Structures are given as C-alpha cells and as structure tokens.
Amino acid sequence: MQEKTYLKWYNKIGYGSGDIAGNVVYALLSAFVMIFLTDTVGMNAGVVGTLIAASKLLDGVSDIFFGSLIDKTHTKMGKARPWMFYGYFGCALCLVAIFCIPADLGAKAQYAWFFIAYTLLNAGFYTANNIAYSALTALITKNNHERVQMGSIRFMFAFGTSMLIQTITVGLVAHFGGGAAAWRTVAIIYAIVGLITNSLSVFSVRELSPEELAEDEVRKTEELENMPEEKYNLIDAFKLLVKNKYYLMICASYILMQIYSATLNMGIYFMTYVLKNANLLGVFSWAINIPMIIGLLFTPTLVAKWGGMYRLNLTGYTIGTLGRLGVVIAGYLGSIPLMLAGTAIAAFGMSPLQGDMNALIANCSEYTYLTCGKRVDGTMYSCTSLGTKLGGGIGTALAGWLLAFSGYVGGAAEQSASCMNMLHIMYLWMPMGFNLLITLILTRLNVEKANAELKAQMNQAS
Questions:
Q1: Of 212, 257, 199, 238, which is closest to residue 382 (Cα–Cα)?
Q2: Which fold has domain 14-207+233-461?
Q3: Alpha carbon 48 to its chain's center
C-alpha cells in the first residue's frame, strides 16, 4: 500500500530553507569565531576554548528541557513552529553581540561578554529554534519517504550555506576594511539573512492536528482514543531517552559528526599557516559541500532502492573513512589536488547519513512509542540540537586547547614547529578518527529492523 503524502514540493523547499538560517549562525561561529577572537580581539585560544566548553555544559541541559517544552506546547501555530519563529530573533541578536565585543573593555570583561552572549545564543535561543525545526519533520508528515526528502533538502541548504559562508566571509571582512568593525558588519548581514529565511521556513508548512498525529497503523483507533493524555516531567523524558539504545547511538553519532565538522572548520588555521593561503578554506569547502549536495540529491532514491537506511549509511561512512585516510596521505605528500580529491570522496560517502538523519530519528522516536507507548518527538529531536552544539562546541574548544598547548601565537607571520605539527594532527588525523568511530556505531544502528519486528509482534498479538 502506498503511503499517504502530506506535502507539496514548495512545502519541502520552504521547510529546507530554514537551514539557511541555522547555518548562517553555525557556519560563521564554527569556522571563524575562534580566529576572530584570537587574531582580531587578541584573546588567548586556550581560555576561549575553556569558556566554550563550560558553555556547552549548560547547553547539554537545555536541549532536553526545550524538547520537553515543545512536546507540551499547544497553540494555533502548533507545537514546534512558535519556538522556531520567536527563538530566532534571540539568535540574531546574540550572533551580532558576539562580534561586537567592545575594544575598550578590560580583558576579563571581554571574556565575560563573549561567554554570556555565546551561552545565551547556544543554550537558549538556538536550542529552541533548532530543536523545533528538527521536530517539524515528525509533525508535518507521517510519510517516511517525505521525511527522507525533507532531510536531504534541508541539508542541501545547510551545506550550500556553509560552503557560501566559508567561501565569502574572508573576502567580505576584507571588503569592509578588516578589523573588528568589518566582522561586526558581516555578522549583522548574516543575522538579517537568517531572520528572513527562518520566517519563510516557519510559514511555508503547517503542523498536523493532534488527531492526525494520533493515527497509528499498528494500534487500533479505539485504543488510541482511550489512551490518557501523556504527562511526564523532565526526568521522565530523560529516562525515556536513556532506555532507547538507538537514541543513544544516534546522539553519539551526531555529536561525533559535529566534532568532525568543527575540526574541519578550524581549517582556517591550516590554510593560513601550513598551506599559506587563507582563501583555500573556500576551495576545500567546495570540495566538501558540492559532493555532499550531490549525494543528498540521490539519498531518497538510494534509501528506497536499498530497502532502508542501515546498509546505505554504513557503506557510505566506510567510503567516507577511506576518503579521509586519503586526505592524511595527501597532506603529508604536500599535494593539494589529492587532498581535495580525498575530501570530495569522503564527503560524498558521508552524505546519506546527513540526508536521512531526520528520518532515522523519526524511526527512533517510533521505537520509543512502540516500546513505551509515549510520543516524545520534540524531546527525541533534541539530539540534533544537542549534537550540533555539544559536538561543535567540543570540537572548537578542543581546537583552542590544542592551539594553546602547541604554542600558537595569534596573528604571528610564522608559527613554531610544535604548532605546525599540531595543525597537521587537528586537520588531518582527527577527522579520520572521528569518521572511523561513527562507522563502528553505524554497524549496530539498525532501528528500522527493530521497529519492523516490534510491529510484527503486535500484529500477531492483535
């Protein structure tokens, strides 16, 4: 039987454009906030790394909190859309504030300014916006193929935006005269773009009614209508997540994916001091994002052809790990063309998991429903925001600590031998290691099979 469809093409495109908003924030911070703070403001890389790590501890708590709030929200706009819409106004303000650190403040006050603005952005406004955006996948359609399509479309926008930000930002800062004022202008421009695209995404879709969401092919309608209203607190929500082993695997994979991305985003240091050309960051960004976008285009078709996501994701990440190994070898050979080739192969192999991640989480949420009888879509999708912020924060903080440990001197024309060796480790070896860990996790992440077995058992019992 063919699944019911819920979305038109313009709903899918409109939804996907929301990742432009998310990535003008994420890409700017992950790729450039560290070098802005060290080379323009004059902060110590190790101290900045520590502040980012401390901020992420607060971040981890807020993800489940906001996910639970979304699950309990009931408005005319729906459950998730209000949080997504209003949360972004705070994102825009905090993004600009991070790049508006007053030069006449003392060093301690500057660190405090950054920490407060960064924490408000990540632990508060970005969390509310991003969890709500991810949760919409389960709230606007119940068609699994449409969910995969939406995941592919949103990540095409995400990687396209990331590529554009990494390609043009260095040039834009130079165009506006360089220095702190130029960074502030660029941040304001990106914040305005984010506000526009986020609003477009919110109002391009509608959430299904509670009655539509309550329909289930496995359980009888009469049973669902007689089910009591779901009431649970934050501790209950946490217990539901911990009981779901597939949630834990997805969460771990997502965190590792974001740490991987963060280490690559620190490539601005590798390009500047090892390859001696900061503008190469944009070239490598194209080598990452174009193959990723091409892979995302084919992901929905491949998922259908391969009969699910499990084998496709595992095969893809195996290819991705081998591609990163090629980058390591090419890096020590000093061959930029071979580095670009290995980067492209790795990105293409990693694309299926990026494209079907939301559908995978939806299946994970379904697993909780089938085993516990509770719908916790918002809470379940907290792993995407948790992974983005915790993984990205750990990766950025780790880069700061390693740079400080290696003796990095911000703005110096030449760096020490120990620093140069560390840059090789950070940009070549660490990404390959993270890919290998994700591949090992994917060998066990077959939630589709688990759900099918649970449904078969229920059908036999009924």
A1: 238
A2: Growth Hormone; Chain: A; (1.20.1250)
A3: 21
Q: 138: number of CA atoms within 13 Å, CB side?
A: 28
Give pLDDT tens digits for 283-320: 998 999 899 889 988 888 898 889 889 999 999 999 99
Using N-to-C axis directions, what is the helix angle for 447-461 and 336-372, rounded to 10°? 20
Tokens 């379940």 appear where? 380
Instruction: Single out the residue of 358, 390, 391, 377 nearest to residue 18, CA to CA.
Output: 358
Q: Which of 225-229, 390-394, 416-420, 445-449 has the highest mean pLDDT?
A: 416-420
CB atoms within 10 A of CB 203: 12
Report the alpha-carbon distance of residue 387 to residue 197 in Å, rounded. Answer: 23
Tokens of 28: 């700017």
Q: What would the two tokens of residue 408 be?
A: 């990095």
State pTM to two decimals.
0.72
The Cα–Cα gap between 290 and 94 comes to: 30
Residue 269: half-sphere exposure toward Cβ, Cα within 13 Å: 36
Whether 143 and 6 have beta carbons less than 8 Å apart is answered as: yes
Residue for token digits 């916006």?
129
Half-sphere exposure of 82 (CA within 13 A, CB side): 12
Other C-beta atoms lying within 10 Å of the C-beta of residue 355: 33
Read off the amino acid at residue 175: H
Which residue shows structure tokens 């080598």?
Answer: 287
Alpha-carbon distance 142 to 4, whole Å?
8
Q: Which amino acid is at 224?
A: L
| Structure tokens that stand for 442 in this block | 């994917």
What is the distance between the terminal CA atoms of the chain, rounded to a whole angstrom? 20
pLDDT tens column, 218-271: 443 444 344 444 555 667 777 777 888 888 898 889 889 888 987 887 888 999
State the virtual CA torsion across 385, 391, 397, 401 in degrees, nearest 10.
Answer: 170
Residue 215: predicted pLDDT? 62
Q: Where exactly are the structural domains of the chain? A: 14-207+233-461
* Spatial contact of 368 and 240, defined as CB atoms under 8 Å apart: yes
Beta strands in 221-292 (DSSP E): none
Name the CA radius of gyration of the chain, rounded: 22
Single-letter residue type at 168: I
* Distance between CA atoms of residues 336 and 333, nearest Å: 9
Q: How many C-beta atoms lie closer than 10 Å to residue 359's C-beta?
A: 26
What angle in degrees, to the nearest 10, is found between the helix axes of 336-372 and 144-175?
140
Token reading at 299 = 């992901």
